[in-house]
Amino acid sequence: MIDMKKKTHSTREPALGLVRGRGHRLLTGLVLTGLLLAACPAAAESDGEGKQDLIRSAMVFNFCKFVQWPEGQTPGDSIVLGVMGTMGEYPDFSSIAGKNVRDVPIAVRQVTSREEIRRCQLVYIPQSQRAALSETLSVAQEAPILTISDLDGFCNKGGMIQLVERRGKIRFFINRDAAEQAQLSLSSQLLKVAKIVEGS
Description:
The structure is a single chain. The protein has about 200 residues and is of the alpha/beta class. The chain is built from 6 helices and 10 strands. An 8-stranded mixed beta sheet has the order 3-4-2-5-6-7-8-10, sandwiched between helices. α1 crosses α2. The chain is globular.
């Protein structure tokens, strides 16, 4: 696990904070590449926006593998990934729909209401839903729901995982406190390759 005393960072910093020398950079790159390609090998053969969608999907798929929901509130027949907004306004997650995590398939659903959000295990909030961010987070925080977004400053505002693009590559930040408050347990393997930030 990451030392609780370790200095945290703002997600607005230009530096990722993942790198602590050449060796650590190489290890981090290998781990992330392995996670992505294992989940979605087609990402290596795609290009442009399609490739970015496949990489985001692969990362979300792996987040499912490295999170534990509280006892009694674990996913039932499916792990529901709710995506805020309307078709065309968010990344295409169809590549992971139906894939199994611990023998439970992922269901990808468009969500627009508070009731629909509450029925999800994960919620993705795209750039187009910036205006609805505060309300979405307030609803998600009422239940053990993993929140994910590529919005700038997402973790600082109480979101749990923020996807960040730097030089054509996608990395991620984690607000560990927000996850713990939602009674979600994140694997130490996931925390080791993330940048830990603080948020409200």
